[in-house]
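dumping this here so i dont lose it
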């Protein structure tokens, strides 16, 4: 079912709820759309009440021009948890979503029952900064369509693209947003927020049981970022998939789900 949350400072967040069981909130990455989770959402909804949402500025949520911050995105998520009546929840965050959950777990630990940090980072490294600087340069010089094409090449590993040529081509040729100029502005602002996220020295303060999951061939957030998270978060364990790229919930959904269910066995019964 689809709903809208009115934020205290104005604007709305569009969210969906599916399934029946303990709450499981899925937080997507830089693109911000809850639809990112479609390849795994239905199976998760067999065991959980699954909540997905579009970040402010993306999808069906209100368009705002920013500036954005990861801390601000975490504050929006807290408003959603309050709307849902979730005192404590299991939370899964992918990429930028994982950065959001680091902020939330540090600021409001009482809200986090179990934490999954998926293909994410605590501090940008030199490769990460160079990559996102290049993506920004493409966006500014060549426009949103070329930025999107570059992103698709990075998000999906080569083996998957080779085996799914038609699906990959369809994604490249999908319709552009109605207001491309606004989409470019929002994307630039969100990338700046991504580059500003740095909670490396604070990770020891995350107390929740944590699963850190990564793919060995991720070309956007290399797996060593996940290794650092698992080393520094006291109650964390690492699940390293041998392949899947940055979009492993899409490319290797079975392996991704198996990792989640193994971390939450009592909830998946």
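and the seq i came up w/
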């Amino acid at each position: 079912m689809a709903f809208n949350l009115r934020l205290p400072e104005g604007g709305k967040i569009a969210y969906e709820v599916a399934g029946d069981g303990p709450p499981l909130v899925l937080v997507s990455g830089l693109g911000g759309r809850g639809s990112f989770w479609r390849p795994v959402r239905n199976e998760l909804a067999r065991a959980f009440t699954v909540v997905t949402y579009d970040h402010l500025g993306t999808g069906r949520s209100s368009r705002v021009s920013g500036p954005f911050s990861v801390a601000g995105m975490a504050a929006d998520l807290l408003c959603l948890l309050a709307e849902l009546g979730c005192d404590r929840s299991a939370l899964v965050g992918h990429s930028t979503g994982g950065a959001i959950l680091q902020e939330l777990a540090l600021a409001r630990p009482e809200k986090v029952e179990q934490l999954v940090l998926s293909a994410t980072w605590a501090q940008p490294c030199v490769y990460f900064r160079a990559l996102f600087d290049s993506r920004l340069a493409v966006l500014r010089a060549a426009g949103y369509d070329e930025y999107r094409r570059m992103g698709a090449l990075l998000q999906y590993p080569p083996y998957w693209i080779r085996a799914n040529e038609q699906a990959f081509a369809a994604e490249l040729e999908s319709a552009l947003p109605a207001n491309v100029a606004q989409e470019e502005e929002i994307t630039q602002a969100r990338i700046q927020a991504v580059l500003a996220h740095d909670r490396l020295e604070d990770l020891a303060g995350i107390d929740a049981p944590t699963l850190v999951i990564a793919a060995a061939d991720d070309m956007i957030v290399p797996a060593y970022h996940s290794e650092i998270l698992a080393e520094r978060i006291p109650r964390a364990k690492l699940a390293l998939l041998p392949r899947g790229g940055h979009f492993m919930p899409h490319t290797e959904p079975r392996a991704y789900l198996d990792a989640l269910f193994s971390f939450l066995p009592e909830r998946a019964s």
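The longest helix spans residues 126-142.
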